[in-house]
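quick one, 186 residues, struct below
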Amino acid sequence: MTSRDAAPAQVISVAASPVHSFSKQPQPAVSLLAGLGVQGDTHAGHTVQHRSRVAADPTQPNLRQVHLIHAELLDELNAAGFDIQPGDLGENLLTRGVELLALPVGTWLHVGAEAVIEVTGLRNPCSQIEAFRPGVLAAVLGRDEAGNVVRKAGIMGVVVAGGEVRRGDLVRIELPPQPHRALERV
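---
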């Protein structure tokens, strides 16, 4: 589940925002808190923190504690003429060398010395992406050969084990037992 190039799977950037805004500010490091998410980030919590989900049912478990995007997506968007920088798409962790979208549900991502994130599903890109930069929503949505929607805007996870995460930290992938379940939007 790592890219075919020789580069190690690693964290390129970490970001957080204490307020409900689309983009997050890059930080030197973030602390992941078990069962909660990124310390000081508005989406941290045991129950849902995304405003639309809170409005629907505030008692839902928070399966979106940490948002991860692969830097290869930013490369693709920037090659298409968009100016997208780390944190711009609201991700907490920007990785390189990990095929995030190919991971099955339940994958554990060991990040840095102690942190572990369990992958819960795909981020469902919304109109906020289009409001951030016109054309980006279409660029992060596609269709596969069967006509199914392909969501490329990253994945979501929950914090299993806390720890500090910073740029350059390595990412080790631990797949769940078979049979694997493909990611769906959460």
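Residues 71-79 form the longest helix (9 residues).
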